[in-house]
Each structure stands twice: as C-alpha cells, then as structure tokens.
Design a protein that fits this description.
UDP-N-acetylmuramoyl-L-alanine:D-glutamate ligase, seven-stranded parallel β-sheet, globular
Length: about 260
C-alpha cells in the first residue's frame, strides 16, 4: 500500500443553493442549505485514501463542532489524523459557498485554524512526511509550512505534488522541491504571466524562459503539459511517476461539496 502524506487545510463548507447569485447588497430568497466537509487538503487526503493509499493528514482544526466533524469524517475514511492538531484559540476553517441554478458559485473563506499550521507542526510530523512515498500540498496553509514539508519530503526521496491554489506567486525554494504542479488556467496565469486560452498557451506557460532553462528544475504539470520526456504524461491525469506506481490525483471535491476542489 502506497503511503501518502497530506499537509494542508480542513474546512467545513456551508453551501446555499439558490435560483441565482446575489448582487452586492442584495438578498435572494429561496434555496437549500447543506454542510459538507472539505478544504483542499482534506479533499486530497480523501481522494488518495479512496484510491487505496495509506494516508496521513497534517493540519489543524478549531476546538468546535465543525472541527470534530471533520476529524471524525477523516477517521471514517481510514485516514491517520494523529497530526491533525486542535487550536483552542481559533475556529475551524469554513467556506461560505453560494451556488446558482446553473452551477456557478461564489466562495468566501474564513481560514481560521488553517492559518496556524506552522513549520513546528510540520517538524512534529517529520516521520510521517519522510516516510511517505507521495506528499500532497496546496496553499491554504501558510507558505512556511508548505516549504518545510516539501523540503523534508524531497530530502527523503518522496514525490512532491503541489496544487497551487489559492493562486499566489511562489518562492523559488518551493519550485526546487516540487515534482508535480497542477495549476488550473487562472493559477497558471498568476504563476507565469501567460493567459491560458489554448493548449499552446499552456505549453508556453510550462516552458521556462531561456535564461532560466539551465537552472530550473523540471516539473511535471497537470493534465497534458509535458516537460520531462523520460516520464511521459497522459491526458486526464493518467500518468505514472518515475518511481513507478500511480500516485493519487486531484479530483473534484471527493468529500461531496459542489464548491471546493
């Protein structure tokens, strides 16, 4: 069984479905309400567990009902939550998601305890990170924690996969530790400055400029972008890593929320 470690966020998604999304200052009546466990990190963890991996989750929740629900949900998925801390001074992260009749959404996130995941928490989970074959990361916890986790996993020879969301510029030190980066069109534009409207644009965004090509560490990008010929990619995430086997892939909200990924 492949060991996977996830360092990242846990959120409770609060979803309201209505006929349309409100304008600024407007109240729209009608619709249904539901809660869904989520957070990009927890979604990654559940996706990997459902693909058959042995998964350890590293993150934080608040000392509240949402936190208990999230941790219990991960336990039901047979995910190791020994490194999911409880912050008594912060609320569990939540996402307020409005969804209209056409499935379009608007999301407002209160990160709460997720913002208190630090390098110290990562160090406490060093054995789990260093002992994993794959490390999954996103950007819903502080970048210092992401950097430390990536460095530990890289030193241990693990495959380091980054979902660069929410979109933000990344430090060079993180690129140096990442094997696979999986941006969508908006995230790719933020990272590279290239507006993505076609496969050709995506290929251009994935190619380092000539001045950087000699020093830039090659990475495999999500979907159809290829930069490492020795380990070919297949579309729809159907690739296999250089170390063999098939690492878990990002999927659309495995915990059930229509808003998060």
């Amino acid at each position: 069984m492949v060991k996977v470690c996830v360092v990242g966020s846990l959120n409770m998604d609060l979803v309201v479905k209505g006929p349309r999304l409100p304008r600024v200052g407007e109240t729209v009546s009608g619709g249904t309400f539901a809660t869904f466990p989520g957070g990009k990190g927890a979604n990654q963890a559940v996706a990997a567990a459902r693909l058959g991996a042995h998964v350890t989750m590293v993150g934080k929740v608040g000392q509240d009902a949402f936190g208990r629900q999230l941790v219990n949900g991960l336990r039901r998925e047979v995910i190791d939550v020994a490194h999911v801390g409880v912050d008594p001074g912060e609320a569990t992260g939540v996402a307020f998601i409005g969804v209209d009749g056409e499935g379009r959404n608007m999301i407002l996130v209160a990160s709460g305890a997720n913002l208190h995941v630090g390098p110290g928490d990562v160090e406490d989970a060093r054995d789990a990170i260093g002992g994993a074959r794959v490390l999954l990361l996103q950007l819903e916890v502080p970048i210092d924690a992401v950097l430390r986790a990536a460095a530990i996993a890289r030193a241990a020879g693990a495959l380091v996969c980054l979902d660069p969301a929410p979109a933000a510029p990344l430090p060079d030190a993180l690129y140096a530790s990442v094997d696979v980066i999986d941006p969508n069109e908006i995230e790719a534009q933020v990272l590279t400055g290239v507006e993505i409207r076609s496969i050709a644009d995506a290929e251009r965004a994935a190619t380092p400029p000539p001045t950087a090509a000699a020093t830039c560490r090659p990475m495999r990008c999500g979907r159809s972008i290829r930069r490492r010929p020795a380990t070919p990619l297949r579309r729809r995430w159907g690739w296999r890593s250089a170390r063999g086997g098939r690492p878990p892939t990002r999927c659309a909200s495995p915990l059930g929320s229509p808003g998060s990924r």
